[in-house]
UniProtKB/TrEMBL annotation:
The keyword Signal applies. SUPFAM superfamilies: Barwin-like endoglucanases (SSF50685). Residues 1-30 form the signal peptide. InterPro entries: RlpA, RlpA-like_DPBB, RlpA-like_sf, RplA. Keywords: Cell wall biogenesis/degradation, Lyase, Signal. Its EC number is 4.2.2.-. It holds the Pfam family DPBB_1. Lytic transglycosylase with a strong preference for naked glycan strands that lack stem peptides. Transmembrane segments: none annotated. This is Probable endolytic peptidoglycan transglycosylase RlpA. Belongs to the RlpA family. The gene is rlpA. Residues 50-74 are annotated as: Disordered. Residues 40-128 form the RlpA-like protein double-psi beta-barrel domain.
């Protein structure tokens, strides 16, 4: 009788690839046709997360102070104006990562980008997203 197989490295790699593929292979909305719209934004890149320098979904190193963001469906390189709906403060970000994981949120801003439109302590903020004409 053959002993039962235990998951090995190959199984783990295949499982990881399967888990990451849907996020990286989402079809992009043609021209961001769902923009502009209002939604909840969050931020990521707190020092305790230790993400600094780790590769984003696009392959570039994560920089918590860069004006970049994560989106589930906008193409990498898309520039989006993110405006705090309560204050009118805005920031232009470039999509270079996938997220947010929480489906109630539409965009994850880096710590630096979020800090331009709201206090980091707020954690979440209602924003308006608008596509940029500059690519």
């Amino acid at each position: 009788m053959t002993p039962p197989r235990t998951p090995g490295r190959t199984t783990a790699v295949v499982a990881l690839a399967a888990a990451l593929t849907p996020a990286a292979a989402l079809p992009a909305r043609a021209g961001g046709d769902d923009l502009p719209h209002s939604c909840i934004a969050s931020w990521y890149g707190a020092p305790e997360e230790q993400l600094d320098g780790w590769p984003t979904a696009s392959g570039e190193p994560f920089d918590p102070e860069a004006m970049t963001a994560a989106s589930r469906d906008l193409p990498f390189g898309t520039r989006v104006r993110v405006t705090n709906a309560g204050t009118g403060d805005s920031v232009m970000v470039r999509i270079n990562d996938r997220g947010p994981r929480d489906v109630r949120r539409c965009i994850d801003l880096t710590r630096g980008a979020f800090g331009e439109i709201a206090a980091l302590g707020e954690g979440l903020v209602r924003v308006n997203l608008a596509p940029s004409l500059v690519r």
